[in-house]
Amino acid sequence: MKTEPFGHPFRVERQVHGYAVVVRVAGEVDALTVRELKHEIAVGLALATPPAPVVVDLTEVEFFSAAGLNAVHRGHLAAKAAGVQLRVVAGHRNVLRPFEISGLDQEITPCSTLAEALTVHTPKGVRRFALPTT
Fold first, then answer.
1. pLDDT confidence of residue 9
2. Three-state DSSP string of 68-95
3. pLDDT tens profile 82-123
4. E strands present in the chain
5. Of 39, 41, 125, 127, whose Cβ has the fewest other Cβ atoms within 10 Å?
6. pLDDT score of 44
7. 9 preceded by cis ω (within 30°)?
8. Could you tell me the CA-to-CA distances from 76 to 8, 45, 84, 134 in Å, in that order?
9. 3-state class (DSSP) for residue 31
10. CA 91, CA 39: separation in Å to the nearest integer?
């Protein structure tokens, strides 16, 4: 999906790779765009099969508002209830700072790379899910 409120591009897309689901987000996540993010997280959770995670990749996000934090937090709670892991990829201040200020980084530890987010430790050992092709 693509929207361009006030000339600020926003994009969110879902990619399914085996049992893992990656929700890639780009642009600004705010009250005008968060609905699409919530939808893609919900669909990702419906498609996910444990132990594969749902990964919300925020590496291309330029602005991340409280609405975005709320959407990710609600997704995290829904994932927990469903027995699925929700992981976040974020490597820059625009996203990491809101996570730190809100304390959400204590509940969801942001991964620095997609490869890290797709690596799952299970009782049977480490499992790495395929990286999506770009």
1. 84
2. HHHHHHHHHHHHHHHCCCEEEECCCHHH
3. 999 999 999 899 999 999 999 999 999 999 999 999 998 777
4. 2-3, 10-17, 20-29, 54-64, 86-89, 119-122, 125-128
5. 125
6. 96
7. no
8. 27, 10, 9, 25
9. coil
10. 23
Residue-level length of the chain: 134
Q: Which residue has the tokens 């330029």?
A: 62
One-letter amino acid for residue 57 of the chain: D
Q: Are 44 and 54 in contact (CB under 8 A)?
A: yes
**Whole-structure pTM over 0.85, yes or no?**
yes
Q: Are 81 and 114 in contact (CB under 8 A)?
A: no
Summarised one tens digit per residue, pLDDT across range 32-66 is 999 999 999 999 999 998 889 999 999 999 999 99
Tokens representing residue 1 in the block: 């999906």
Query: Token match 């299970």: residue?
Result: 122
- From CA 118, how far away is CA 100, in angstroms rounded? 22
Contact status, residue 23 vs residue 57, Cβ threshold 8 Å: yes
Cα 64 from Cα 51, distance rounded (Å): 28
